[in-house]
Amino acid sequence: MRNFCRVKKNKIWVWSVVNHKTSGILGWVLGDRSSETFQQLWQRIKAWNSYFYVTDGYPVYPCFINQEDHLVCKTYMTRVEGENSRLRHYLARLHRKTFCYSKSVEMLELSIRLLVYYLQHRCIPMREQSPREDIAIA
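RESULT FIELD:
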């Protein structure tokens, strides 16, 4: 999924991994459309020992995925498009035509991380705050 930071010239891509049979995003990474960015995601994916991978046929994938394990198929990509649509629904900064945009890659990453966590666990992680004894309530 393509997005941008600050200006439309600064394109940034959200690479995501999903399971065709279940909802939710299993892994994701932000970056450009290069093999270096996909390699970051591939380091996580290959540890899962999946027996085949379905992609949209982007030329970077054959550099990492064995040909016998790689399937290029639009039918199985509907889950990815559905998850992209869900991300766009919840985060205005990911809408295609919007006045909302990310001013930094860090804020975009944190927003996606928080949303993916919420969609998986249906709660927002809260840090424990130590009670402040210097506040008096009258």
